[in-house]
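User: quick one
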Amino acid sequence: MALKHAVLAALLDGEYSGYQLAKAFDIGVANFWHALPQQLYAELTGLEAAGLVAGRQVVQETRPNKRLFSVTDEGLAELERFAAATSRPSFIRDDLLVKVQAVDHIDAAAVLAQLTERARMAAAKVEIFEQLLTRLRGGADEAEFLAHGARIGPYLTCLRGLGFERETRDWCERIAGVLRARAEAAHRA
Amino acid sequence: MALKHAVLAALLDGEYSGYQLAKAFDIGVANFWHALPQQLYAELTGLEAAGLVAGRQVVQETRPNKRLFSVTDEGLAELERFAAATSRPSFIRDDLLVKVQAVDHIDAAAVLAQLTERARMAAAKVEIFEQLLTRLRGGADEAEFLAHGARIGPYLTCLRGLGFERETRDWCERIAGVLRARAEAAHRA
DNA sequence: TATGATTAGTCATATTCTTGAGTATGGGAA
DNA sequence: TTCCCATACTCAAGAATATGACTAATCATA
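Assistant: Done. Structure below.
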């Protein structure tokens, strides 16, 4: 019951096609959730059948036709119910952590390489999020925007994404440093 | 192919029963992965069938008998292969973010309550991780431990957990503050 | 002396997420 | 002009994860 509400929340900012949603939910931004196109199309079909979103056909000349979806009143009510219900905390679930956990028993060089690469990816995401935040607040001061902005939800989730990626980057860099120092020490000995 | 390697990594520190693993993987610590008991028992059965872990029966008098598992050489080789393969980055996937994303369109008070509660939970986890870190480095200085400790993997993943929970706590508190200020401003108006 | 918690598991089902393959059209670059 | 990329979407199958209901014994506590 999770992707369902993520889709509803994403559609609050306007009409989107499955394809457009897919791009937002796929690698790149993925502000507050992540999903593959196939899931999204399936989810949209289900949501429409349940009356939580409404789709309308848009005929295009140069491109294939598309269907744009928007949240219905029932969809909004469903989101309201969802928001009122308690949800249990999320956990970290990352292959890289498993590798680091095992690092004393396996080839540390392989783990080190992946930490370096992941730090790079996280740093790239940090930049993307920072640009997105600037765009979302439309030149305004952050405190001012958060106090009086009309639509702050996406900004707030973006802040979480930024914090997460910064943490990931810093941790990867720090652990990589530790592993490098140990490798050098072992080499000298 | 994810939980499999998490279980192998967890068993590197000694023999554990499914029950003991379940406690470590369930709420509480969940250093680097999270899973329910049923999953773990199933996974252990599969790993044993594949020869990646070995189980031995321990007969107990006051408690039900248990089976303790340890990683075999083949299991270690499998972990090695896993560590060498690249794995794509992890995403945040959290119901609370979905609620925050929708906060401008739904009852902000409900979201605020959940942010407060989540901040409390994250703060509790921060304390647990801090205590665990102190225990893991056995009184030694952190830099000293990371440079020369024999088993640093669990410490490093614990650091990630700590950073994640701190970020979660800080973000929840900050966003809660923003929502409270907006609610007050709306009330005055 | 019931009651519930803890230890130690199993079984079945349901949902969710991922993987892989396809359909069809138009636009731009080599 | 061939090939790849972007738009726009569908179908099928599998792996991973979550939910809920069980068994069975001991231990602590009210």
